[in-house]
Specification:
Elements: E1 2-4, H1 6-10, H2 34-37, E2 42-45, H3 56-64, E3 72-74, H4 96-114, E4 119-124, H5 126-139, E5 143-149, H6 172-178, E6 189-194, E7 205-206, E8 211-215, E9 229-232, H7 240-243, H8 245-256, E10 271-278, E11 280-281, E12 284-285, E13 294-300, E14 307-316, E15 322-328, E16 334-339, E17 345-350, E18 362-363, E19 377-382, E20 395-397, E21 414-419, E22 427-432, E23 435-440, E24 448-453
Helix pairs in contact: 4-5
Length: about 450
């Protein structure tokens, strides 16, 4: 069943898609309702190399529509990156079977915690592979709804090379999931959400992967499944198929059976933040906890980015890698400083947090690379819930379009500014469309990197 909502979704359609709609008169927390209690518990599943914190704004929107926080969970796969060959063990990477087992255990835990007979699963990218795998291999009785957002259901490519790759449409893993007249498992309701041409992992030509002119044998329709409800969200990117307000609307409607009451996030008067510190092992991101990492939280001035008052929170992680809870002003931007072993000290500059969260996941910035060797300071603009480069985007770092952002080619979630030593200590404005964050240029000589992390 294929339903295109392109015309509806490309316009606002009267819905408050603007995330910045944090009116102070709406500070009362949304309360769980009887109708919300009928919604099954929801487990959110991240993609390749990613982490639970990407679902933060989705969790906030669910809460703003009365879904109780304790009826939702976001998994952190231990080793979130896929193997090159699914059948060959590879350090710090996971197989499809590894992910199936971890997801099955998370489903069991959410059912235990809520007492529900079945749960709904929502996954982005590789997370959808894991959802399909667990549902097809014994889990359909536990899963009422499966929402697959930008999942490469027919591969990122479909070639006779690299047949062991989980992302090869001709490989054993995807052929096994897609065999038969229907590509979904009976008993579970399936929804796919996809882009109308700007998902870099659903392209007929390899240019989005750095291989122009090489046919992938995959099209923009690659994420669709025979037997599922398949929706087109318009011209959005790979991660936006899961984390954009348009995606939230369809996720909520499919699971709850009705329109959400609101798209904008309802702020809370008191905000407490906590999360997990993880790291990179031999160049591969993992979600294993990091012991002995120092986390500091500061309020900063909205216009200058300078710290205001005393430190809000300071602590060192234990064996569980957890930090927090830090009580913060919901109207104030933050600087979160992460001093993690064997990694650059990372200064995260964040827009205000309108609601509390226990998934403020911190992973140190990448180590300095050869391109940084002559820089006095390195400032990274990060958009973890999407990519830069769509034609609609305004991306400015230090008042100009970053050199590593190419309009019309959404290839990365980060953009980098390298400043000479004479400009160390200055404040840099990172702007993506209407969101603006001020970051300080810290000296690279002290092994420090600034990250302006754009929430939306």
């Amino acid at each position: 069943m294929k339903l295109s909502r392109r015309m509806i979704l490309q316009g606002a359609g009267g819905l408050a898609f603007a995330v910045a709609n944090f009116r102070m008169e709406a500070l009362a927390q949304a309360q769980p309702t009887a109708a919300a209690a009928e919604v099954p518990p929801i487990l959110f599943v991240h993609g390749n190399g990613d982490y639970d914190a990407l679902w933060m704004t989705t969790l906030w929107r669910m809460e703003s529509n009365g879904i109780a926080r304790d009826r939702m969970m976001a998994i952190n796969f231990t080793n979130p990156s896929a193997r090159t060959d699914d059948a060959v063990e590879q350090a710090n990477r996971s197989s499809t079977e590894d992910q199936r087992r971890e997801l099955a255990a998370a489903i069991t835990e959410l059912k235990r915690r809520t007492g529900a007979a079945r749960v709904a699963l929502v996954g982005n990218s590789r997370g959808g592979n894991s959802i399909r795998n667990v549902v097809k291999n014994g889990g359909s009785g536990d899963v009422s709804h499966a929402v697959l957002c930008g999942t490469p259901n027919h591969g990122v490519f479909a070639l006779d090379d690299l047949l062991g790759s989980e992302f090869n449409g001709r490989g054993a893993f995807l052929r096994g999931l897609n065999e038969g007249d229907s590509e979904v498992t009976p008993g579970t309701a399936f929804l796919t959400l996809r882009s109308d041409g700007m998902d870099k992992y659903a392209q007929p030509d390899g240019r989005f992967m750095g291989k122009p002119g090489v046919p992938t044998n995959v099209t923009a329709e690659g994420p669709e499944l025979k037997g599922a409800t398949n929706l087109v969200l318009g011209t959005i990117d790979h991660r936006e198929t899961a984390y954009h307000p348009r995606a939230f609307r369809e996720i909520y409607k499919f699971i709850a059976g009705r329109e959400p009451a609101r798209i904008a996030i309802t702020p809370e008067p008191t905000v407490r933040l906590s999360g997990l510190v993880t790291g990179v092992v031999d160049g591969v991101p993992t979600n294993r906890p990091v012991t002995g990492a120092m986390v500091e939280v500061h309020h900063v001035d909205r216009e200058s980015g300078e710290r205001k008052g005393d430190v809000v929170y300071r602590a060192t992680t234990g064996a569980d890698g957890r930090w927090g809870a830090a009580a913060v002003d919901p109207a104030s931007p933050l600087e979160i400083v992460l001093t993690s072993p064997d990694a650059p000290t990372t200064h995260f500059y964040r827009s205000p947090f309108p609601r509390s969260s226990d998934v403020v996941h911190l992973r140190a910035a990448r180590p300095f690379i050869p391109a940084d060797k002559d820089a006095g300071a390195v400032v990274i603009m990060s958009r973890p819930r999407g990519y830069f480069g769509l034609p609609r985007d305004t991306v400015l770092l230090d008042g100009r379009e970053p050199a590593d952002v190419h309009p019309g080619v959404p290839t990365d979630a980060t953009a980098t500014l390298r400043l000479p030593a004479s400009e160390v200590g200055r404040n840099v404005v990172a702007q993506f469309n209407e969101e603006r964050i001020v970051a300080r240029a810290w000296p690279a000589s002290e092994n420090r990197i600034a990250v302006a992390e754009l929430t939306y």
